[in-house]
Every structure is written in structure tokens, then in C-alpha cells.
Give the backbone structure.
Amino acid sequence: MNNIKIASGEEYIDSLRNRKLKVYLFGQLVENIVEHPMIRPSINAVAETFDLALQEPQLASAISPFTGERVNRFLHIAQTRDDVVLQNKMQRRLGQITGTCFQRCVGMDAFNSLFSTTFEIDKKLGTHYHSKFKTFVAEMQSKNYVIGGAMTDVKGDRSLAPHQQSDPDLFVHITKRTSEGVYITGAKAHQTGCLNSHWLLIMPTIRLTENDKDYAIVGAIPVDADGITYIYGRQSCDTRSMEGGDIDVGNAQYGGQEAMVILENVFIPNQLIFMNGEYEFASMLVERFTCYHRRSYVCKSGVGDVLIGAAATIAEYNGADKASHIKDKLIEMTHLNETIYATGIAASYQSKATLSGAFMPDDMLANVCKHHVTKMPYEISRLAQDLAGGIVVTLPSEQDFRSKEVGHLLEKYLKGKADVSTENRMRILRLIENMTMGRNAVGYLTESMHGAGSPQAQRIQIARQMQLDFKKKLAKELAGIEKNKTKILVSEISDYFGRVFDVNV
Amino acid sequence: MNNIKIASGEEYIDSLRNRKLKVYLFGQLVENIVEHPMIRPSINAVAETFDLALQEPQLASAISPFTGERVNRFLHIAQTRDDVVLQNKMQRRLGQITGTCFQRCVGMDAFNSLFSTTFEIDKKLGTHYHSKFKTFVAEMQSKNYVIGGAMTDVKGDRSLAPHQQSDPDLFVHITKRTSEGVYITGAKAHQTGCLNSHWLLIMPTIRLTENDKDYAIVGAIPVDADGITYIYGRQSCDTRSMEGGDIDVGNAQYGGQEAMVILENVFIPNQLIFMNGEYEFASMLVERFTCYHRRSYVCKSGVGDVLIGAAATIAEYNGADKASHIKDKLIEMTHLNETIYATGIAASYQSKATLSGAFMPDDMLANVCKHHVTKMPYEISRLAQDLAGGIVVTLPSEQDFRSKEVGHLLEKYLKGKADVSTENRMRILRLIENMTMGRNAVGYLTESMHGAGSPQAQRIQIARQMQLDFKKKLAKELAGIEKNKTKILVSEISDYFGRVFDVNV
Amino acid sequence: MNNIKIASGEEYIDSLRNRKLKVYLFGQLVENIVEHPMIRPSINAVAETFDLALQEPQLASAISPFTGERVNRFLHIAQTRDDVVLQNKMQRRLGQITGTCFQRCVGMDAFNSLFSTTFEIDKKLGTHYHSKFKTFVAEMQSKNYVIGGAMTDVKGDRSLAPHQQSDPDLFVHITKRTSEGVYITGAKAHQTGCLNSHWLLIMPTIRLTENDKDYAIVGAIPVDADGITYIYGRQSCDTRSMEGGDIDVGNAQYGGQEAMVILENVFIPNQLIFMNGEYEFASMLVERFTCYHRRSYVCKSGVGDVLIGAAATIAEYNGADKASHIKDKLIEMTHLNETIYATGIAASYQSKATLSGAFMPDDMLANVCKHHVTKMPYEISRLAQDLAGGIVVTLPSEQDFRSKEVGHLLEKYLKGKADVSTENRMRILRLIENMTMGRNAVGYLTESMHGAGSPQAQRIQIARQMQLDFKKKLAKELAGIEKNKTKILVSEISDYFGRVFDVNV
Amino acid sequence: MNNIKIASGEEYIDSLRNRKLKVYLFGQLVENIVEHPMIRPSINAVAETFDLALQEPQLASAISPFTGERVNRFLHIAQTRDDVVLQNKMQRRLGQITGTCFQRCVGMDAFNSLFSTTFEIDKKLGTHYHSKFKTFVAEMQSKNYVIGGAMTDVKGDRSLAPHQQSDPDLFVHITKRTSEGVYITGAKAHQTGCLNSHWLLIMPTIRLTENDKDYAIVGAIPVDADGITYIYGRQSCDTRSMEGGDIDVGNAQYGGQEAMVILENVFIPNQLIFMNGEYEFASMLVERFTCYHRRSYVCKSGVGDVLIGAAATIAEYNGADKASHIKDKLIEMTHLNETIYATGIAASYQSKATLSGAFMPDDMLANVCKHHVTKMPYEISRLAQDLAGGIVVTLPSEQDFRSKEVGHLLEKYLKGKADVSTENRMRILRLIENMTMGRNAVGYLTESMHGAGSPQAQRIQIARQMQLDFKKKLAKELAGIEKNKTKILVSEISDYFGRVFDVNV
């Protein structure tokens, strides 16, 4: 990593070469992640975040208030509600371009949530995390680095707090403090795009109590810091990208990436520590991060656009696109997909300024958005399989299609509509397989389920904000239980529905 | 109707007295709608639209560009996207206050859609509808009148166009043209709040062809014009408001209103005609009106707030509010309710200026919003009945509760939690009955289904805008079918996803 | 009540005359329930259970093993699994004939569950309830009486046990014991068809503990016993049957009936007591009763047949029946409706003999059936409203239709397809209103929700029987966790899936 | 293939050795399918159908009326409704044992549907297919062979009939007729278990018209007949079984199998031809086959048992099994799973004798069952992924777990509850991955969608049988439209609801 700002996807890919990362995959140390056929597609996906900023600066970049320069939107602290909305639009577009997870949202959401949280820690406790963090942000912006937000601990027994686990390392924690900084140990699970990042932001993953004080650590580390081991996560059909062809992979260019990050006494110097023991702020950080991140799942509406397009294409290739039930299923897919988009956009649009000045989405609607994301992509996926026909899971291999012995038989018998090439029909089927049960189903489905918190986490958060007392009062007035009805002024109900009735649109 | 601007709900109610309307109900001419116990609750609901404008001017009023004065938001032509969003916020608040339909949205949405449609007719055909319409709007604003938008024809055989019907009057049409104006005949069905309006805007209800030219009529008529007969629509449990008590009605103060408006050679003078034969603009008007109106159903999230509050209250009264499944059902109700709100807000926020300068919501998202409204209130209602318990449909009458003979038995045996009065428990149960199968279920459920177009109408509109060609292209690129991928610029896809990727947030 | 066996619906109606019942409705004592326009439809529905037995003896009657005579199936103790299945078929047919609740299932299910429960109490404790009960059954069969099963207590605070309530009477309990029998006090809520019964079977409503011993009382009382007061429950739109016409009621002939039964020191003689303090058998009785009763809700598939027919008819009358989305909605309604039927039939078919010889349905599937009934009729109802169009809730009154002044206008403007009479279109719309939000919606929807236990009660019962240990074992074997797989013999897993794998089909 | 009856799974596996099949996979000819690691699991699954018959003769075998001997139930012609029900019970049990598709149902359902169809062809046309078919059945029973039912053609353009396709071979058809028999050409897609069969039954796949006469061919061919080429279908994660371990495969022992069967002038001798040109009976055969086969999907409730068990196990391993939402999700999974079972059992129980004497399920309920199978496994699968946590798609490889370098790190950090081994946690996660997006998801999900007909095929069949006229009549009677109500006798409505009201239970 040098001092030159990364300007394009190509430069970004170059920046990943020649790093001394300790990455394991299939029990082997990976020498060069950039050229590894199973890893490269995930790098290509991140690279698109650079190219989109060049091609569509309004959409994918912004002027940094810290550097005064145009920076990638993924590194930008949202200054207005429009900034927050534009994150969503950029995310949908990148979902369309890559058909998968482009891995850079966690860093963006970590940046924004840490920005306001460090501000509030300092304000309450007189610490100096915020200015250090701002310096770090500006530095990252000036290099156009990719930031991985490392929050999710491996967690061990879910019924126990960090300090109650049989092994204290099951949550990342401080093992030693020196005057220069701290040493941390533990592991972060399913770290999206961690190998494709330049820096990682370590953050706690749950509400902490005083007993968990050593777990209240936030800090930045370079991905190649001493003491880090990466173990690459398997994905459905992952090895197809090592088979040599470009049909059976479904989406040859792009893929996601998840790895386990194991930290063994990794050092964080003082200037890169942004929380250190202030356990009472862990929940603020987690809730703000998830607030941003839950509506970041609008990206799945972009991925959904691809899958709807694939389903419409196979229907056409099969000669079935005129049937009313086929059209109706495409409508249903669209209705669901746009619901994800609309709830995300509404959450972003209803953003409010935090004390730090950074804008943060409406938490209720962000949770509503994410909660739909835990279900609707599954139904869209089911409908895509319906339109694809059974051949989506019984298609012979690319090698058979290319073989001298039986290739011509497949060419003949896998034909759909007469004017469509058999190869193209195979290609679109493999894309649907890829997105509904193959490699990108990991990101479109399961990661949609658990990323930014599993479904129940959203329900808990919705419960916290559903203001039953206010709603009970509304009902009691209309039922004649509270007879001396005095209408509540909007200005009086900032505790209640200020969010909804805020007139400073 | 005099020349003084109506300032309050009370003045509004006064303005409805002493009109010579021909209204039939139960086979009888209604002398005085204001004092009729079955009609009055609907008037009270409209009155709240006046009082809210006084109490919350930011929310429920706006500065008219035509009069320069602050006018009720229901009469305002949206000048900005924030104006469109504030319509939704006002609608949710009024849903909370009344727990029913407050009847004034149709007029607001008719105003806004006619504003831009007349502009575009004039632009294309050189007519002068727009300035006449602007004058009419300013006049209505200066009086603060209630406008009913009369669109839905009775329609006869749904498989036939207007001119094909066995009876030409099954759609409203021009029967005579004179130099002063036109005469129209026909009937408009389920006219929300028509009796509570001061003026009606007559509009066609479907796409028209040249053969339907006489059906392409838009004009304004006072509600007491010669030739109009109103026949009041029945609602579930409507006569309970004539029984004398205030418990069994459920919501004693507020109700909705639907009537059939029968027009027999009603005259419209030239200056109040805003379309006259330009059949090719009927679909523009209908589509714009439904675009506004479909996301106006955000009001149901306000009604949903009341029902969620009622469900939470009865759970508490029953001593059941601590059960995890009860909490979970309240969360589900909230999740659904906020989805309605979020999709509506997103549609409004994504508004764009029309050529006339008036802002219009995003049509795709407006349809997505309304489509959810055709389902989610039914599920919220089902869950409310779940929480209420069976007693919601077996509760004895208010008269029994008040009777000397058995009142004490009900007092004793209908007791829930010891510290809650039996009467209050009955009241909240009756409110839930009212909203889920009684009088206000008409508005919360069935009218949510059909108002602004039945479910299939939204699906057709979603289909029109789902841009399958663009989505197919995305899929083909990723599948390797279109090999020379050239990334589409946002600026190039205004035909496609301009809506989504518009960066002028 | 005399000694002659009731042979027909007409004789049944006669049998209800001249009884000295203390029934309150709208604060008034009802002199003659048979001629009361609001009550009569419920009597007509029960009458059909007599006529069907005459018309279709195979379906609706059976040979009693106690009397050797053919008796009404509602009074028959199921001797075979086919007997249990035929209950369901009879129920569906009666749902089709009446379009509502015919009120006689509770008695049938109480008879069957008490038969086996008294047998097992006697077997364990040496009591003599079973033979007394058998005598009572034979007596009722010989008269062809209607039995009301009075289980549901008013319950007060749902978080407290009977003996913990602030008022001990909130559950029915023994207040005095004499050598001749016991005296009971309390109230039973929403007693379906109680006034239309000849005898009531008092039963506890929940699992009891030793402290609730006085609540463990089962006994038979004639409906006109001293100390009983009935207070009639209101239903949506109930007073329409008192308006004089036959259109607006929707279903003029048939309706349901729910009343509160208040017991003040009502005496039960020893020979009619079938449980007296054996609190540990309360849960067996309740669970067996709900097992039978939950799959008795197959009747709703018969009611669903009517609503599907009504929806298909209005689509035809509107000229909309050729549209593909209309057909698809009718298919969906049918799919849901048949799911109710199929799950009920499967539960009945999987019946097993109890120790007493009486057959009892499969409890898991009975709960699955009822759980669908708490949701599917709501969706069928929503779809019926979709097909009906908005007019279903805005239709003017029958009096307007009959009036000289405006009747002709309605005749003209409410016309649908040219060859269908307006009156018929109104009639079918009123039937749909009746079934989806009017009087029979009480039975089709809300009572489907709560009757035989609210939704959560089914989930608890499903949980009790879902045999997770067996299923975990299956998974562990396939995952390679339990390596020495020994296949379980069907004969060894009677504790597990004996139900499923019983080969004595 | 010799003359000895196959007695056990082991003997069955031996019977598959040394056959001269032309099977292609990854562009290579497969020498020995029995030892091929990717194919063997599918053979193991079929082998269980033999062993179950030994272990549970009541469940999985029956006395053949043709041979008088006990034969495998998969080869038995159902003589009673209990026989049909027992098919379902056997299917559920085999789903539990294998967690996948055991591939033998198609043959069973083909046997049964051909039995009655050949009978009716002969009866009408005086042909002699039935006795030839009976001879063939007896022969197969005596050898205990596995029969593959080859119905699904590759179909080409779905909007065209067989004879309209650009290539006549896109549906299998007769290319030459000789005095000894016929020659056929074409291809059958996604042939479940075809390589694991001994014989294939060729059948047409859709309703045929006179122009498609040469497509109306039914006949039996040995799997190793001249002119057959098999091309193996790929499945998600299929190559994991070639990696050497036993964790990452998820279900190491069992899998499904689908291949394309290409027929090039394959000969069928006269005695093995069971339809030859009688195109008007193609739809009878297809409808009867799908009637049996749609409720054969009850097997998925057995697979669902495994997945529910796996979800419950991982919840326990994660320490999350006490959470109320976890329990509730397991209940929901069970509710859905038992709905599949119940609707299948009801369809089988409602079987009726065909003219041939063979029993056939209720077609309406069979379609209802299958239609649920196209949705519910997807929701069960989604819930299983919810309970599994994100680690189900980010788990590192078995090789990493076994490696010296990082194995200990995974051992440490993938620990859940302290008393559960990390390996076991990995194993159960891999099983869930296998069933929800890996190899067995093909059978549990996508094949559940399309096997026995895609969802729309069921909707069409439901529509055909939903008897709207009868239902309309019910509604019109209750609405007062048909005034002279004459109750329909059950005996009169055999055209209508004979199925439902059949009293010969």
C-alpha cells in the first residue's frame, strides 16, 4: 500500500497484489488471491465500486468535508439526507452491475456510525476518539482504500455473554494494554470482503455490560497486520470457478467473499483506537451501525433486478412468455423487489442529523426494510425457479456441451425457442441456478437473512420503537375510554411520532 | 355557501346546513344530513381536516402560489416533492385522529392530477382548460371548500366499453351541448364524502377511445346542482349509530361516507369544463389521479396505528400482554403497517415535476404502496381479532349492559384484569369490531381493496413500468450472453431506470 | 320437552316453543325465541341437521350401539374411523346448506370426548361416571335432543388460574355439595346455539391443579334449569333481520347464535354428574374435546364452498368472469378451502380407538387443520371481496331499491351484465357482505379464529407432539454425527411416529 | 440382469454392476456408475427401498394379486384405498431415512396409472395392451426390478405442440414401424434415477391431438437397450462428493439423480408396447399418472422431518433453543410439513376404484397436496437457514478443519455450546446447507416445484375440478336468487361432490 490514491478498478486490483496475507483455503496457504480463480470474482465485484465512481460521479462519489476533494461515496460521511438516499441508489446500481455482493457497504456503514458514536462518547466522557477517527477517515479517503467493518464475533454459546463463555476468546477482546496501544485476540466470522479490503475496523458485536469491559474495543488495523489468519469460507458451488469454463459458474465475473478473520494478539496503536472500555457505548455503536446497514440491503433490489431479468429471459427462451401466469409472476417478483427498494429509500429519506452532524436513517423503517429482505428474495428466487423449469437443476455440464461425443445431442435437445441458441439458454439457466442455489445465492438469500442481524433482531428493534403507549391512547380516545380528548400537538410528540410527523421534510 | 372562507371544523359543519340536497336513505328523503345520526360521524371526520390545519399549519396547510395565502393542504397544488411527502404525513395523522376515512383526499388528488393534465391538453391542442382550472382552484382555496372527486362510474358490464353498454348512461356522458355549456347524465358509484363536499369534480373513469368521445368530460358542479340525486350507501352495522348509545357503535364520533350520485341532465357551464371530448387524455388523467391516489392510502397506516393500539389495549385488559406470541403479533402488525407508510413515503419522495410544475409521485412505488394496502390491513385486522378473543363477536348489547335486570351480571362476568373497568373492556372490543367487521371496516378493509383501483389495476400498472428489457439486458450481460458489455450511463437510461437512479435527490 | 323422538326440522322447531327460558336481548326479556326475527335464522340452521339425517341417513345418522336404533350422527359415539370421517363429510354438507354455523358440533364432540374420558377416570379411580354418562347418551339419542357443550368460561384475567381470580365465579365452580348433587355458579361465554339446545353439558375449560378442585365439574343440565340467565350476543349487522326485507340480510334463512350463559347456583343431580373434583382429568377432557372439535372446523370448507360460489357468481354478473386473474383467484380460494377439508379428513382418517372403544382423531393433524382455519377463511374472504368490487360495501338499502322515488334509478344504475337482474346482483353482493363482514362473518371468520381454541393454542399443541428428539436423530444420522446408525423399527417407535407409520390403515 | 429376484439393498447394488450403459458426465464416458463417488449416493438411496421392504414388510411390501407373492410396494398395483395410503407412509419413511429422493416413485405411479389406462383403452378400442402390461408387471415383480418412468420430453418451444416443433425429435416419437415392433427417437429430460433402474417405461408427456399420433407411444425398454445415451445432470455442489471428505458433502450417503435420456431409434418389441397411436388416451394417462404422482410428494414431509430435526439440532448446538421465536419457527416448520402429509394422506384415503380395479387417489386433493409442495419446502428451508445462522454459508472447508496449520483454530472458534464438539456443529451445518442450497436442495426444493408438473399445472387441474356451477347454486339458494330450493341428494351429485360426500368411506 503506497501513498497514491486508487483511481480505477484496475488500480484497485493492482493494489491487492503482493501483500503478505496469511489466507487458508482447502487446507492450503493461498499465494496470490488476485489470481485465484475462486477468489478473483469477488475482487472484480469490489473493483466495480471504483469504476462506477468514475463513470457516475454524482451517484457514487461525493465531496468530502474533510479533504475538500471528491471521494468515493463508500468512504463519505453523509452530510445530508440526500447523501443517505444516494447510498441506496448507488447500492441498487451496483447490485445490477454485479449480480452479487460488492462488499463495500460494511465499511461505509461502519464509518458513518463510528463518526457519530465517537462524537457522543467524547461529548459525554471527554475522550478524544472523534478527532482521531476523523483523521483516519480523511486518510482513507485520500487513498481511496477499501474498509472492512469487522463486527460479528464467532459468539460460541448464544445464551451466554462474552465474559461467560467457556473460552474468553469467543468474542474479540483486549488481552494486553501498553502505553502504545492494545493487543486483541479472538475471531470475526463471515467477514465480507475482508481480503479485498485494505483496512479493517474492529468493533464489538453486541450490547456489553461492565463485566465485558475488555470486549469494548474499536480500532483500525491493516489487513496484513501481524497475528491475523484468514480462513476462506466455502460457498455453494464454489469450486465451479476452478473447472475452467464460463457457463456452469453462472456468473463468471462476479462473486461474493466471506472469510473468518482470526486475531492472535494483534496490536492496535493508540491513534487508531476509537473505543477502549466504554462498554456502555457498545449498544449505541451496534444499533447505529445496524440502522445504516439494514437499509443498505437495498442492494438486493439491484440483484433482484438481475434475477427478474433472468426469469423473463428464460420464459422467453422457453416460448412461455405470453402465458398470463408467467406475466403475473414477473409482476409479483417486481412488487416484492420494489418493496425492498421503497422501504430502504423511505428509511434513508427520513434521515435525521446526529449530534455530530452526520445523517442517520430512520431506524424503524431501516428495520422494516431489512426484515423484508429476510423473506422477499427467497420468494423472488422461488418464482425464478418456477419460471426456469426443472432443467435449471438437471442441466448437464459445460464439458458435456463442449464434448465431441455428446455436445451435438445437447445442442439439439436442449433447444428451446427455435431462434435462440442452446448455449444462451444454458447460460441463463446457469445464472438462475447461481443466484437461487449456487454461489450468489449465498449473498442473495442466506446473507440477506443474517447480514446486519438475523430476522429476530429486526423484530426486537421494531418492538422497541413501536410506541404502543401512543397508539393505545389513540384507540382509547376513539373508543370513548379517554373522554377528555386533548389533541396532541406534533411538537409535543417528539418522543412519540416525531419521526413520522416531522414537517421539516 | 357564502363568500366567507371556512376557518374551522365547526364553521365547516355549519356550511353544510340548509342546503337543498336530494339525499335518499332507507327509502326516505333525508331532511338534514348534519343532524342525521348515521351521517353525522362522517361529517365530523371531514371537520378534523379543518381543525388540523389550524392546529398544525406546517403539516396540514401550505402557501398557495395562486392566492399567496395559506390554504388547506387538501386544496394545495404540490410545488415540491416535500409538498407531496407532507400530504402523506397529514394523511397518516388524520387516520390516527379519526380511525376512519376523512374523505378529502380524492379532491386533493383530483386537483393535482387535473392541474398537470389540463396543462398538457392545452399544450398539445391549444385549448384553454388550464387557466380556467387554475381560476377554479384559487376560488376553492379562497373559500376553503371541500371538493369531491367523482370518477368511478357504475360501469355495467365490465367486459364492455362505455359506448358498448346496453344502456349508454352506465358511464357518465354528455347528452347535450349548448353554447353555454354541456348537460351530463349517468351515475357515479361509491362517492366518498360526496354529501360532505361543496363541489364535485366529474371525471372519466377509464381509458377512452374515439367512440367514447362523449364520455370524455371533466367539469365542476356544486353538490346541490339541479338534477342530482344522492342515494346513501349502507355500511356494515350502520344503524347502530341510530340506537342511542355510544358503546356498540365502536367509534361514536367518526365514520366514512359513500353514496351513489345520480346525474340527470346536469348542466356544466363552459368556464367550469376542463375536458370536453379529448378522449385521448382520459387515460393520462386517470393514471395521474391514481398515481397520487394510490399512495394517498398511506392514511391507512394512521388507521392501522389506532387498531394496533386497540389490540395492545385489549391484550393488556385481558391480562395477556406479557405472552411472547402476543408481543410478536403486535410487532408483525407494526411491520406491515410501516410497510404501507414507507412505500407511500418513498413514492412521494421520488416525485418529479410535471410540465405544469406540479409535482407527481413515482408511479411504480405508488402502485406498490396501494397493492400492499389491498392485503396488509386485512392481515392486521385478522391479528387484531386474534388478540381480542372471541368475545369481540359475542359481546351482549350496550342496552343489556345498561339494564337493571342483567347489567350487574355483565359487569361481573365481562371483567378482564381486576383493575380495568368492564365498560372500558367493552368499549375497546367494540372499537375492534368496528374496525375489523363493522362500520369502519368498510373503509379500512374493503375500500382499501378497491379505492383508487382494485388489486389487478395495480398489477397492470406495475407491469407497464417494470422495464423487463432493461432487466433482461442486465441478466444477459452477467450470463455471458451479451459479451461486449458496455455499461449504460445513468443519463442514458432515463427511459429505463431514470426514476431509480435520478441523482437530483 | 316430552318423550317423543324429534323426527324432523319442523318438529325440532316445535320442541323449542313454550319453554321458560330467561333470555335477554337489547335489555329486554325475549318472550318467544322461535318467532324472534333475529334469533329464528339460528334455529333454522339447527333444523337442517334433523332434515339432513332424514334425507341422507348414511351421511347424517348412524346405528347407536346403545339403543340399536338409527340416531342422528351428532348424538353418535364414533365406533370406527369411518364414523369420524363421516362427521366431517356431514359437517361440510351442512356448511354448504346453511352458509353458517349449524351449532350442533360442540355437543357431538363433547359426547365423544366425555365418553372416553369418563371411561378412563373410572378405570383409574374406580368411579362410575362412564355408565351414568352412557345412560345419558342413550336417553338423548332416544329423544334426538340437541346438546350444547358448555366449556368456555369467561376467564377474567388470562394470566391467573381459576382459584387466583379476584372473583372466584370467573370460572364455573361448585358452590355447594349435597347428598343429591352439586350446585354450580359462574358463566360460560360465547355459547354456540345454547338457546337452541335441549340440554347443556357443563365442562371445565382449562388444565386444573389441586387448588382448582371445585372447578373440576362436569354435568348435564336442561337448558331451562333454575338459576340460568342467557344474555344474547350481538353480531355484526344483527338488526338487519329486524328491518323487514330479505335482501339486506344477505342470508335470510340461516344464522349463527352465541350467548352468554350465567349460572347462579344451578343444581346438578348425582346421576348427571360425570366429573366431580378429579382435576387431574380436566386436561384430558379439554385436549380430547379440542382434538375432535378442531377438525370439526371442516364445516368451514362447506361455508367456503358457498362463498366461492358467490364470488364466481358476482364475477359473472359483473361480466368479469373471463379475466385470467379472476379465474386464478377462484382457484386460489379453492386451493385454500380444500386444504381445510383435506387436513380435517386426514385427521379423522388417522383416528385411533381409545380405551373406551370410541375413535378419536389424530391430534397433530386436527391441530394443523384448525390452525389453517384461523387464517384461510380470512384470505378466502378477502379474495371474495376482491371479486365483488367496491359496491359490496356501498350498496344502497333494500328500502331504497323498493322505493317509488329512487327504486328505478337503482334498477338502472346497479345493473351489471345486461341479462342479469339488478335485484339478483344486489342479492349476491349482500350475501358476500354477510359472509365477509356481516352476520355470518362472525362464524366464518372470527369464530373460526377462536372457536376450539385460539391460534396459539394450536401452536402449543403442535409443539407438544412434534417429536423433535426423533427428528434430531434422523438429522444426526444423515450428518454423520451418530455413526452407528441402527434403523428404528416402526414397531419400536410407537412413542414417536406410530401415528404416521401405523400400517393398520 | 439375471433371473434371480433381488432381495436386499446390497443385491440391488450388485445388480447394477457390469452393465453396458453409455453414460456421460463432465464430457467423459463413465465406466462404472456403482463406484463413481458422485453417482453412488443416489444408488444408496434406491437401495434403501429394498431394505425397508425387508425390515418393514407391512409398510413397504404387499401381496401381488398377479404372482401371489409378497413384492416390493413400489411394484404393487394398489388394490385398496389402504394400499394407496400405505404408499404415502412408505414414502415419508424413506424420506426420513435418506433425506433425499429415493427415485422409485415414478415407476410405481407409472405402473398404477398404466394399469387402469391400458384397461380402458382395451375396453374402448378392443386392443390388448392390458394383458401384455400385466405380464410385464408380474415379470418385474418376480425380479424385484427398479422401474424408471420416462415421461418428460425436452419440449423445445413450450408454445408449440409436438408436431409443430422445428425439430420433430423434441418429443419422443415413433420413427419406424415393423411387424416386430416400433423404433423411437427423442429425449427425456430430468429422468430421476434412470441409471439406477433396470427398465424404463416410455410415456407421452402431454395431451395429444391427431396430428401428434406418432407421439402416442408407450412401451418398456431395458436401460441398456441399443441406441440410448445418458447424459448426467449437474446438481448444486455435486463435485463435493469427489473431494474425499465426508463433512462438506452434508449428506455423505444419499443423493438424488437426474439424467437426460437420449433415444436414437431405440426398438420396442410388440409385447412391450402398451399404447401405439391412441393419442386420445394420452391425456388420460398423463392425468392419472400425475394424480398418483402429485400426492407421492408426501415423501417431502419425510425429508422435511430431517430438516426440522437438523434445525432443532443446530439451535441446540448454538445455545439458542430456549428462545421463544426459535420454538415458534420449529412449530411453523412442523405445521407446514404436516400440511403436506395431511393433504397427501387425504388424497390417498379418498381413493376410488378405477374400472380396472386399481385404486386411484382423489385428483383435487392430490393437486392441492402437490401445490403446497411447490411452496412449503421453500419456507421450511428458509426457516432452517434462519435457525442455522450465517455460518451455514461461510463455514470453511473440511480440509481446513483437518489441516495441521489452521484446524485447531477452527476447532476453537467454531465452537458453539461448550459440550458439543465443533465437528458435530460443522456436520449439522453442512447438512442444512446440503438440504437448502446444496445437492439435496435440488430434490427438496426445485424438484418439489417442477416434478409431477409445475405449479401452474396444478392450478389448471384444480380449476377443472372446482365445480363452480354447483357452488354458484349453493350461493344463489342462500341469497334468495333461486327461490324454489330443492335440496340436492348426495346420490344425485356424483357429478358434483360425489368425491366429498361419498359415504362409502
About this structure: The mean pLDDT of chain B is 95.
